[in-house]
Amino acid sequence: MAIHINPQREDSTMTQSYVIIGDGVAGSSAAERLREEAPGADITIVTDEGEALYNRILIKEYAKGKLPEAPISIHDESWYSERDIDLRMNTLVVNVDVHGHTIETHDGQTLGWDKLLIATGGTPAQLPVENADADGIHHFWTFQDARAIKSHIEKAEQSVIVGAGLLGIDLAATTAAQDVEGKYLMRGDCWWRYALSESGAEIIHDALRERDVTPVFQSGVDRFETDDTGAVEAAVDPNGDHYPADFVGIAIGLDFNTEILRDTPVKIEDGIVVDEYMRTDHQDIFAAGDITQFYDRLLGARGQNGAWGSAKEQGAIAAQNMVEYESEPFEWVSSYSITHFDFPFLSFGHPTRGDDSAEAKYSETEWRRLAFKDGQIIGGVLIGDLSPQSKYKTLIREQRVVADQKEILMKQEFELDELEAAGTTVE
Ligand SMILES: Cc1cc2nc3c(=O)[nH]c(=O)nc-3n(C[C@H](O)[C@H](O)[C@H](O)COP(=O)(O)OP(=O)(O)OC[C@H]3O[C@@H](n4cnc5c(N)ncnc54)[C@H](O)[C@@H]3O)c2cc1C
Predict the structure, then answer these.
(1) Which of 149, 243, 356, 396 is the most exposed place for a label (fewest CB within 10 A)?
(2) What are the b/e assignments for 74-103, b being 16+ CB within 10 Å?
(3) Residue 225 resides in a domain
(4) What is the pLDDT of residue 427?
(5) Could you tell me if 94 and 140 lie in one domain?
């Protein structure tokens, strides 16, 4: 195995100590880039999980019963030792001391750092309702969660899923794959209502119904009912309707793991605020991955991505800038695909934001929507045909003003040349 190392780097960054909190894809890719760019540096990764980096995207395939455990692991411990990276598993960081340049762990250890990367992601949010912690109610973030979901769903008879977003649909697809009939309780009129309209979401609803998962609209959960052993028996929605279930999956978003920064000057606003170089308000503290509220140069505003590719890139960019001040900005169009159905699905950029939109339905399984801000495409959703994605992403990267060209943009097939005359780049 060849490990790339930058032989040119001879300055003090070579001998600094870098500590990374979190061994998700952001933390791990940061460590890899750090080792390349700072061959002599001390690099430590601290994670509270009991296993090294695994593919969080694939744990749903494991829960569905479609994949065994082995291919989900990405790095084993030797990956770290070969790179002289000190991996500390089962270690929860409980505090960051900015003045002392140290972190403290749950077992009383103190570790010093010259530069610190926070890549701690989020923890699934709890539903603030009665019995939300009953047995049989699951959240979905770690491999351990996937193992618990798999072993329970294999014996379950009826499910309720809550959370009409990208993770909720993973839970719904998991129950469907294990042949468990389900009710998918949604607050509005359609799945992922901030990114899709009813017309587009109907394709998803039909695909769910075909798999015995019934969407229930204008619903949600008011409380859960339990049996004598404390196991969940039913969800009761705000309309008073009862939905019997011995398996419940909840995916209503993430609470970001920022608690360890409570005594620091680092700015927290539903995540850690960083600039395009992944720098926080403290010059030696960086952040990367799901946890960041980063300055998105393409959006011209603060953005947050909950996607694997983006977290990986942010980790690498953060590392680059930790070694060399302001050396590389993060500029990225995020993508997130769903592969549960017979048709492909992709969301890209920031599909839930913007001041304008355009959508079109081409067939029973083909639909598209674009979100615009100040005349530029900033994101979208493609169902059925993903082929235009690279053209849309090019327009995002070029920051072209094209909202007045919707007819061309929404043609089932179009060429970028068709837009050239009218679309101008924003200065
Ligand atoms: C079921 C599922 C399906 C997904 N599917 C897709 C998909 O199809 N496409 C896509 O793009 N994205 C998908 N995602 C999202 C994607 O996995 C995340 O965006 C990505 O993993 C975020 O990486 P991260 O490194 O920022 O955070 P994380 O992967 O959450 O890693 C953070 C790590 O930090 C650890 N940690 C937190 N606090 C501490 C502490 N105080 N001390 C020590 N360690 C700590 C956590 O335990 C965790 O290991 C999916 C996620 C899930 C859960």
Answers:
(1) 356
(2) ebeeebbeebebebbeebebebbeeeebbb
(3) yes
(4) 44
(5) no
